[in-house]
Predict the structure of Lon N-terminal domain-containing protein.
Amino acid sequence: SCVRDTISEYGCMLEIKDVRTFPDGSSVVDAIGISRFRVLSHRHRDGYNTADIEYLEDEKVEGPAYEELTSLHDSVYQQSVSWFTSLQDHMKEQILSHFGLMPDRESEPQSNPSGPAWSWWILAVLPLERKAQLAILGMISLKERLLAIRRILVIITRKMNSRQELVNSRERNN
């Protein structure tokens, strides 16, 4: 039988903010992503996976491309807020207790070399498969990442609306 390779092509360096250890030996680690990387090569040494990596930063844009990016940034942020606001209270509470509050919209979308903090928050809370998360993590174009978030939000919103329409039609027919 073949052992599946468990090293991802992309990853995120974490800064540990807090560790809470419980009497049963388990613990909860509170961490924040600080920089993305791509795995160039990896190996197994002394019982540990090790890797050579390169850090990723978003490509900067200027002029008309920057104006377009700023407009896209603002509209996808508003779309993200609208989606989160539309969730049922218990779902919002679960997300907030696990991920904290959604970061505010940055006035300058390119101020962080890894992109706006709110965009990573929304990607963390959206119901995405690991493969999709890793593909988005590896994108160095903020515009492409924002377009991906927009597509995901449109799909999820359509599913939520069609489920609600189904519930409403059942209630009318009863």
Notes: The chain has a mean pLDDT of 89. Helices lie at 63-86, 89-99, 117-125, 130-137, 142-173.
